[in-house]
Write a structure and sequence with these properties.
Elements: H1 3-29, H2 32-60
């Protein structure tokens, strides 16, 4: 890599470390009740999303493995 690219990578890493430190500090300042509430909200939202995905898949799937659309073939005689 060139010198400019090395500088950018170094700046990105320094910014990332700073953001991670700030995030850890904010998490440490949160009361434990907010942290547990955040976990409960995440659990509820995650389970709701998973349930919706499963229900959508079950609704789309035909239980007998047949295709969802029916194909109709009409035979026309030309000798009439």
């Amino acid at each position: 890599m060139g010198a400019a690219a090395d500088r950018k990578v170094t700046e990105i890493e320094a910014t990332r470390r700073g953001l991670e430190a700030d995030l850890r500090e904010l998490e440490a300042r949160l009361p434990s009740s907010f942290r547990s509430l955040k976990s409960v909200v995440g659990l509820v939202l995650g389970s709701t999303a998973l349930t919706l995905l499963v229900l959508e898949r079950v609704k789309r799937k035909d239980p007998k493995g047949r295709p969802a659309a029916e194909v109709v073939i009409r035979v026309v005689r030309e000798d009439l």
